[in-house]
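Hi, here's the filled form for the chain we discussed.

Project: internal
Contact: R.S.
Residues: 135
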Amino acid sequence: KDPVATAASNNPELSTLVDAVKKAGLVDTLNNAENITVFAPTNAAFEKIPQADLEALLNDKDQLTKVLTYHVVGEKVTTQQMEDGTFKTLEGSDLTTKGSGTAFTVNDSSKIVCGDVPTANATVNLVDTVLMPPS
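And the returned structure, exactly as it came back:
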């Protein structure tokens, strides 16, 4: 298995995320982390952000790093823990998960569209909305 950033680069649905991770300089950080959980926004999730806002975000390395690290939890999160969970992200703020079976939401706004995808060093959950850290 490939580490998480490498694995993501092989998924055409995650090309915007992969570009963002490269721009923020987080490829090695993500690939070298141990036992993390990544809530990975799909291209469709990024498309929900107005184009001008997305371009501004992609060109602001500090803010982009905050947003991206808000999608990463520094532990392996199981589906059971996600039924009613609060997790500290690498950004420093918490995110919450709720649900059961295969139907989960993150922060009450983003749906997990594909959960529990294993990579060499991370569990990946694809989400349909980009999560914004509380400011």
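Let me know if anything looks off before we file it.
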